[in-house]
Amino acid sequence: MAKKERFDLVIVGSGPGGYVAAVRAARLGLKTACVEKAPRLGGICLNSGCIPSKALLDSSRYFHLAKAHLAEHGIKTGRIGLDLAAMMARKDRVVSELTDNVRKLLERNRIRILHGTAALSGAHRVEVSLNDGKENTQTLEADAILLATGSEPAPLPGMAFDGQRIVSAAEALAFDRVPKHLGIVGGGYIGLELGSVWLRLGAKVTVLEMLPRIAPAMDAQVARTLDRLLKRQGMEIRVKTAVKEAAAGAKSVKVTVETDGRSETLNVERLLVAVGRKPLTRGLNLEQVGVQTDPKTGFIIIDSRYRTSVPSIYAIGDLVPGPMLAHKASAEGIAAVECIAGRPGEVDYDTIPSIIYTHPEAASVGLTEEEAKRRQIPCCVGSYPFLGTGRARCMGETDGFVKLVVQADTDRLLGAHIIGPRASDMIAECVTAMVFGASSEDLARTVHGHPTFAEALQEAAMAARKCSIYAF
């Protein structure tokens, strides 16, 4: 007989949306439980996504610097070797430490943690099949239920993941040796980041993108620059290229591609399929309890307060429309819990940054120049190259630029797009400026430290004002 417990809120999933929501709920006084089917907390992001990929990106970047760039700084290193096992072990330690921190955070806030597979059995009830080796179940009853189970890789027809030759990002983060030739289907965030890791470590990397450009969600000028710089590093990028078939053999994958009507066969050692992700709703019993989903996308349908078609059940993160980003899920988790607690909670979706952690990094927030023109918004565009900043020259990091899109009539910042060193950190200033409705004059008159990369942002703001009616 299943044991029963009662809570104010039960959260299914402990990723960046789920665990952040749980902590906020506990601090608002809600008796909260968090259910996670995996052995460790943190979800895909901490265990097999954002965190391990960034750990490998940093490690592979150090390896590349030691091989190719330290000499120009007068540093003699001798022969450089790769210990991939040690690199992977470091990555695993980073993941373990962060997931342990999440557990401690939940425990400090007196949140009940259950490891098991959750399924909805009513508007206020969750059945949990516990991972205790005894096939025990537990029934959780709650005033509100928050679904935060995230997403899973989207496969392509005829290219089913086998975990060995045709792989998802999770397997590509744990190769036991550097592949001689890594094929990547998809020129988005995941494909470019993991392609960069293995390229730096010695693999030949071929990116196959069906659309006319890589990083299609980014500003077009940023995407073109990223394409050029990655090719300069040695990455092979083929756009307007559709993958028709992939046949895995014992030692390689035969990939049939089509570019401008011409078919070609490539042989790669491994094939990473990174064409996107889909909501992970399998086994939740959504239909049985009346939670509606979009039949085309699979997203759970919610209202402005993150309620599903069943008012006591809420959903956030990759389960609902919008960019599949960890920080978006965290923001939604906080907002949803505040709504559950009877407070106002919302997310400003116009100011959610997007980042590609290649080298150089690419970061974006708000409208691109193309989007502003499509919406017929009169705008000014100001840009400034990192080549012109002293800090970038000192570090030898002169590739890229800052580009700002400003409303011509009001001078308000509409969007910011950065490709270059530390773009992932610099974009935060632009997000803050947009949240507070700042103008290009506000950014231009803000004193920035010298010498810093952020001076390029100030210079871009000055450049944008040249076409503004408020120009000084």
Q: Main attributes?
A:
FAD/NAD(P)-binding domain; 5-stranded mixed β-barrel; alpha/beta; globular; 3 domains; 21 strands; Enolase-like, domain 1; 472 residues
Category from helices, strands and their pairing:
alpha/beta
Mean pLDDT: 96
Strand count, sense and barrel status of the largest sheet are:
5 strands, mixed, barrel
Shape: globular
Rg, Cα atoms, Å: 24 Å
Within CATH, the superfamily of the largest domain carries the name FAD/NAD(P)-binding domain
* Major sheet: arrangement of strands: 1-2-3-4-5
Number of strand elements: 21
Kindly describe this structure:
The protein is of the alpha/beta class. It has 3 domains: 3-152 and 278-349, 3-Layer(bba) Sandwich (FAD/NAD(P)-binding domain), CATH 3.50.50; 166-275, FAD/NAD(P)-binding domain (3-Layer(bba) Sandwich); 360-467, FAD/NAD-linked reductase, C-terminal dimerisation domain (Enolase-like, domain 1, 2-Layer Sandwich), CATH 3.30.390.30. 32% of the residues lie in helices and 26% in strands. The chain has helices at residues 16-27, 43-48, 50-68, 84-108, 169-172, 189-200, 220-233, 286-289, 326-340, 369-374, 390-395, 423-435, 440-445, 455-464, and strands spanning 3-12, 32-36, 112-122, 125-130, 137-147, 151-153, 166-167, 181-185, 204-208, 236-238, 241-248, 253-259, 262-268, 270-273, 277-279, 313-315, 354-356, 361-366, 379-385, 401-407, 413-420. The strands form 5 sheets. The protein has a 5-stranded mixed β-barrel. It has a 5-stranded parallel β-sheet with strand order 7-14-8-9-10. A 5-stranded antiparallel β-sheet has the order 17-18-21-20-19, sandwiched between helices. Helix 3 (50-68) packs parallel to helix 6. The longest helix is centred in the N-terminal third of the chain and has 25 residues, at 84-108. The radius of gyration is 24 Å and the shape is globular. The mean pLDDT is 96.
